[in-house]
C-alpha cells in the first residue's frame, strides 16, 4: 500500500469566527501542527483547502477543492481524485492534541480490503478523523456529494468494509476545536505531549 498524507483545511470556521487553522497553539498554527505530524511519520503531506484560504507559508503541497462548499466530504473527494492509487491518511487542521502514535496505529492496522479504517469511542461513536480512506472510494463519495446530506457518517453506512478500531489512547487526543470555548480549554490546561507520546495529559 502507498500511503499519502492529507490535511483538510478548507472549513468555514463559522463557529470560531475566523480561520481557526491559523490559531496558534504553543506558537504554532494548528494547520502547521497537522502537517508536522504527517512529516514526523514520513508521509508527504498535502493540504486540501478552498480558494479563500492562503496557506502559502506551509512547505508542502497545497491543492484547492475540486467541488466547493462540500465540507470535509468534498475535501476527501478531492484527495481521492488527486491520489487515485493511494491509501489516504486524512487529518483535520483542528485537532492539536492528536499524536503521531495514534495515527501510526491506524496505519499499522489498515488493510486495503477494508477501504476505510477509523477509530470508534465507547463502541458506538465513529470518528471520521484521523482516518485512512482508499482513493477507490472516489466514485461513491462523488455520488454522495451530489446531494444531501454531506455527513461522513452517511459514507460509513454505505461502506460495509469499514474497519472500526477501538481508540486505545486518551480520548483528549481526538478532541477538535470548534469555537472559542474549546480553544480556551486547551490554552488554560493543555500540555502538548511529545509527538510519539501515546498519552495526552492535563496539568
The CATH topology: Spore Coat Polysaccharide Biosynthesis Protein SpsA, Chain A
Elements, N to C (H/E) = EEEHEEHEHEEHHEHEE
Overall morphology:
globular
Mean pLDDT, to the nearest integer, reads: 85
CATH class: Alpha Beta
**Tally the helices: what do you get?**
6
Number of strands: 11
For the termini, the CA-CA separation is: 39 Å
- Which class do the helix and strand fractions yield? alpha/beta
Query: Percent of residues in beta strands?
Result: 15-25%
Rg is 16 Å
Give the low-pLDDT segments.
192-203
The H-level CATH homologous superfamily, spelled out, is Spore Coat Polysaccharide Biosynthesis Protein SpsA, Chain A
> Main sheet, how many strands, which sense, barrel?
7 strands, mixed
Q: Which sequence of strands runs across the widest sheet?
A: 5-4-1-6-8-7-9
**Helicity level:** 25-40%
CATH architectural designation: Alpha-Beta Complex
Number of domains: 1
Condensed summary:
The protein is α/β, with parallel strands linked by helices and 203 residues long.
Describe the 3D structure.
This protein is α/β, with parallel strands linked by helices and 203 residues long. It has a single domain, classed as Spore Coat Polysaccharide Biosynthesis Protein SpsA, Chain A. The chain is 28% helix and 25% strand. The chain is built from six helices and eleven strands. The strands form three sheets. The chain has a seven-stranded mixed β-sheet with strand order 5-4-1-6-8-7-9, sandwiched between helices. The chain has a two-stranded antiparallel ribbon with strand order 2-3. Strand 7 and strand 8 form a beta hairpin. The C terminus is likely disordered.
Amino acid at each position: 500500500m502507498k500511503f499519502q498524507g492529507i490535511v483538510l483545511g478548507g472549513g468555514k470556521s463559522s463557529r470560531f469566527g475566523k480561520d481557526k487553522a491559523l490559531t496558534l497553539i504553543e506558537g504554532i498554527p494548528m494547520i502547521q501542527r497537522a502537517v508536522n505530524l504527517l512529516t514526523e511519520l514520513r508521509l508527504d503531506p498535502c493540504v486540501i483547502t478552498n480558494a479563500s484560504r492562503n496557506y502559502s507559508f506551509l512547505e508542502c503541497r497545497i491543492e484547492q477543492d475540486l467541488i466547493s462548499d462540500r465540507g470535509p466530504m468534498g475535501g476527501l473527494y478531492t484527495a481521492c481524485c488527486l491520489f487515485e492509487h493511494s491509501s489516504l491518511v486524512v487529518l483535520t487542521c483542528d485537532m492539536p492534541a492528536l499524536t503521531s502514535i495514534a495515527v501510526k496505529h491506524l496505519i499499522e492496522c489498515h488493510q486495503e480490503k477494508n477501504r476505510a479504517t477509523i477509530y470508534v469511542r465507547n463502541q458506538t461513536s465513529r470518528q471520521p478523523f484521523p482516518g485512512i480512506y482508499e482513493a477507490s472510494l472516489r466514485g461513491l463519495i462523488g455520488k454522495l456529494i451530489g446531494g444531501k446530506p454531506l455527513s461522513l457518517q452517511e459514507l460509513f453506512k454505505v461502506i460495509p468494509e469499514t474497519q472500526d478500531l477501538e481508540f486505545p489512547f486518551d480520548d483528549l487526543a481526538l478532541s477538535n476545536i470548534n469555537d472559542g470555548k474549546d480553544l480556551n480549554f486547551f490554552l488554560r490546561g493543555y500540555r502538548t505531549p511529545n509527538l510519539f507520546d501515546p498519552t495526552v495529559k492535563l496539568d
